[in-house]
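Sorry, can you check?
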Amino acid sequence: MGQTILRDILVIFAAAIPMVLLAHRLRFPSIVGFLATGFLIGPYFLRFIPDVERIRGMAEVGAALLLFSIGLEFSFDRLRGWGRQLFGIGALQVALTTAVGTGAGLVFGWSFAESLFLGCAIALSSTAIVLAILSHKRWFDAPAGRIATGILILQDLAVIPMMVGLKFVALPAGGEHGMVATAALKVAVLVAALFVLYRWLLQPTLNYIAKPRSKELFVVVVIGLAVGASYATEKLGLSFALGAFLAGMLVSTTTYRFHALSEIAPFRYCLNGLFFVSVGMMVNPAFVADHGVGVFFLVLFILAIKGLIVGGSILVFGYPVSVALIGAIMLAQVGEFSFIITLFGWQSGAIGEEAYQYIVDAAAITMLVAPFLVSVAPGLGEKLSSVTWRFKLLRGKWQSLVPDEVEPELSGHAIICGFGPLGMTVGKLLEKRGVPYVVLDLNPATARRVKQKGGRVYVGDGASASLLHHSGIETARLLAIAVPDQLNALAIVAQARRMNDDLYIITRSRYRDQCPALYDAGADVVVCEELEGGVEMGRYILGELGMPPEEISALFREIRSFGSADFF
């Protein structure tokens, strides 16, 4: 038995290495490589590993660590900071998708339990895939990236009530009353235990463990906490996934949150790979061939309906069409929790074999095509950025946030694109000099704050020619671009330069390698955060070493004119 397991692990790693390398070469997330590996070597295709059950135990440990680490990413302070994106857009999307998915299952002739499991499964998106894409493309600070992250957080939080509610749905017929009471008691016991752990035990225990400064002991305790919580909730008749996620959330409330996250990272990456390989093994090509039309339409249904609901939810909260489109494409796929929910339904008997295979195959296909879809999202978003009508739901009426006419009094003014902390600082400096300015921002909440203070503000994408025209770009003196998204900044610079050749354009960039493209597009000055951070640190260091201030200033003027730390 031991030799068989070792052989299976060897086969998985041997097959995964070239597949993951190929995924990286194609600029896809590693998850796609692991899913493809599982499909190829699994029991339904090449049959290198004919029995999935042999690795399911390790895969569940990997899933537990994945969910534990996701829980570690949460903090209640962070949740409060997400505000409308989290509790507004995310809650609306999860509720609508679950309801529509459940209704679709009933229309297809599935039982209520199977339909509800379908609705819950398709309501969730892949946190791992989306975050990997956002990290690779540096989209975290872009409007669509922030909104997608907020929705993912709400989806992950929604798993807790989903798993508890689905437990009741999965109860066998005939013993509902007694079993519901038992399940409710188990949930109450779990909540009480978590409260005691959170209130009195967790922080002191971790403090005591950390005293010997034994890295090994800390890792053992943290992994033991994740696996132990998973085992406890499973024994209570709930889900191992629920326990791991809640344990991670509890640890996130302590001072050891980031320490725990960094220490379990090597184990997490390795065992996560096994989890996604096991998911790939669930895909049955014979079933897909026999039920190809049904699987195909289920995949289209998931991608189209979920995309429409995500995009519509973003639009309802006042964001532009371009942002809604990118967010919809990013989150149209099905996620990691979906497989856990589906497997739970199958093992409990709430989902039949056919419905189970339909959901698993369709979900895996959406994850495989997700990188292809996301790759076209920015291009489509840029094309839609020229759309002049930006809508929000206000007092029951759809109203445009872009005026019909240019304000005639605007001349020699400034335009600020992006009114976050950086943009607000620029605005305050302009006010002190008595220079009028117009704010362009994608966040309706920001627009309302500026409007309340008597400022001129339009909601929309600064790359829109119509919006720039309405903000008086032809008669403006300068344009300050404070948006964090590189692609958006590049599009704004190029469009503004085409409309006013004499305009003074200053923009930000996060990284040095982004500067040349911005200068080529027409920017007069690019303030590189990476370079400026080094310059300011260098100023203090050289001053401490006794270099005269005038020499320091001359040196850094020369560096800035060169535009890069490659000056040296």
Q: What stands out?
A: The two ends are 61 Å apart (CA to CA). Confidence is low (pLDDT under 50) at residues 386-405.
